[in-house]
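Example 69, ligand zinc ion.
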Amino acid sequence: MARLVHFAAAVREDGGVLPMCRVLSLLNFSARPINMRVATWTNRREAVSCKACLLKLKRIDATEAKEGK
Ligand SMILES: [Zn+2]
């Protein structure tokens, strides 16, 4: 079975990678890091397979478009 690929939102000081689908904001470092045994991460959007991560990326795009960024 292919491992789930999350979008990496942030990397903690201990090396744990926080997936976009688990962080409510980029300042929320209490989220659980990705379990690298069952999943992995990328920062290339086209390689993301986690649906929750993709949904969040789309929402962020919509917000930035509204703000004119
Ligand atoms: Zn995810």
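Summary: Residues 4-67 form one domain.
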